[in-house]
Amino acid sequence: MKRLLFLPLIVLLLAACSQRHDNFVLEGSFKGFSQGELYIYGVNGAWPLDTIGVAKGKFRYAVPITEPTAFVIVFPNFAELLVMGEPGADVEIEGDASHLLQTKITGTKENEALTTFRRQTAEMTPQQASEAVFNLLKEYPQAPFATYLIQRYYIQSPTPDYKRAAEIAKLITLPPPQLPNNGDLIRWLKGVDALRDGNKLPQFTATDLNGRPVSNADLKAPVNIITTWSSWNYESINLQRQLQNRFRQAGSDLRILSICVDADVKDCRRRVTRDSVKWSTVCDGRMWESPVLNALGLAFVPDNIVTDASGKILAHGLQNRDLLTKIDNLLPKKPKD
């Protein structure tokens, strides 16, 4: 009888041990950052947006994951740090908040490779850094951080290199959700020339969260912005908030269309209502398979297109700060009182 009573306890202990084994544990410290919060999210929605508490300069973050996952840590100044997570892995971070490129991350082979990559590229020219990305992804073609590096170094770059990005996309072989669809990404990169500055915005039609049809015809203001965002991407959510100030101040001189790639349409609607977003938001729950994304040639979060009243593309794939500066420079100057 006693053996039978002990059996459920043994089963529970074994299950608990199994759960702990699947935990990815991230801990460490940052010099110059003694108290506060960091944001963390998984690349391409592999893990929802979360926070990491920092106390007395130290932090610990543990989550259960079932497959290798690329995480991005976001600092209060919006600087980002890429970290690889693996089931059962303990990863340690040691760095200086004012010199993030020198951060040391240990615990897995991929994190040690990323540490070497970060430190080397800190002293490189953009062209040299681009080549370093290519070499890194040749060595790790199945790494979940591949799409993040492609976006950062080849798409959202002052001098985008879509041809090189397409070459790299052929190297990587990732299943969803780490990569929306490798074949689709390659085709998108080949056809992205349509979004070059000076070209006309591709024709598109969609329906926003209020059931209202939206198309090119709605983007006739002096400055028009199309953005992509998701609940799991801090950078894109932060941009939505920053755009609200511009939208209120610009009046009819600025039109915005946001495309949310979340799978949960109801959750997207709640967020839009909570944040009092006044412009049209499209979310059909189809994520990367959304027809409007395909029509516009958008394949990353965040991503953006800037057009004028005639539909001419003025910019594409700008980083947040560059996009906001672009808007400020393009908006008609209001006369001072």
Task: Describe this protein's structure.
The chain has helices at 2-22, 109-121, 126-139, 146-155, 162-169, 182-191, 234-250, 265-274, 291-296, 320-330; strands at 23-31, 35-42, 50-55, 58-64, 69-74, 80-85, 90-96, 104-106, 205-207, 213-215, 223-229, 254-260, 280-282, 303-307, 313-316. The longest helix is centred in the first third of the chain and has 21 residues, at 2-22. The model is unreliable at 1-20 and 175-183 (pLDDT under 50). The chain is an alpha+beta fold. The termini are far apart.
Short descriptors:
337 residues; alpha+beta; Immunoglobulin-like; Glutaredoxin; 3 domains; five-stranded mixed beta sheet; four-stranded mixed beta sheet; 10 helices; 15 strands; 36% helix; disordered N terminus
Task: Give the helix/strand layout.
Layout: H1 2-22, E1 23-31, E2 35-42, E3 50-55, E4 58-64, E5 69-74, E6 80-85, E7 90-96, E8 104-106, H2 109-121, H3 126-139, H4 146-155, H5 162-169, H6 182-191, E9 205-207, E10 213-215, E11 223-229, H7 234-250, E12 254-260, H8 265-274, E13 280-282, H9 291-296, E14 303-307, E15 313-316, H10 320-330
Parallel strand pairs: 1-7, 11-12, 12-13
Antiparallel strand pairs: 1-4, 2-3, 2-5, 5-6, 7-8, 9-10, 11-14, 14-15
